[in-house]
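Before the break, one more example. Copy the sequence into your notebook; we will annotate it together after we see the structure.
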Amino acid sequence: MRKNLLQVAFLMLALLPCAPSVSAQGKAKTGPDPSTIRDPDLEKDSLHNLEVARNYFKLKKAYVAALKRCEEIIAGNPNFARIEEALFMAGESSLFLAQNKGKQNSSLYVNYDGTRKRTLSAEEFRELGREYLTRLITDYPKSDFRKQAEADLAALGSAKVNRESREQ
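Here is what the structure looks like once it is written out:
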């Protein structure tokens, strides 16, 4: 017991001169930026939804299902680490639905307006796609999806200037 106590005391004396040099780098006084703090469970759920949406989009050409999954991510987790991919996929899915491409009928995409359901027209799908792609370009200018989004917007005419809420 005495021997252990002596060893601990010696160890403490040896580490005492090092104590002042052990501090946070840059003498940080605050924690991380609250806008970048992410809930791990929400990130995991969003990542799962993104993988499912990617599967619907690329493999199954089920653009209605891909759009719904992406909208769930965008609405539920706006600070998602890969939100730009969700925005891009939502924009592309909307444009494909406007052209009536894919294996799902665009009438499967239902918008709830108060108490009634309604489907979107091809022009409304184009506007929805324009909205998502414009948001991608303006909010994430260094995104890997920027060039393709700009090309799609150029084919549509131009980016959406004012962001209106989609609740009609």
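The longest strand covers residues 110-113. The two ends are 78 Å apart (CA to CA). Try to locate both features in your own notes.
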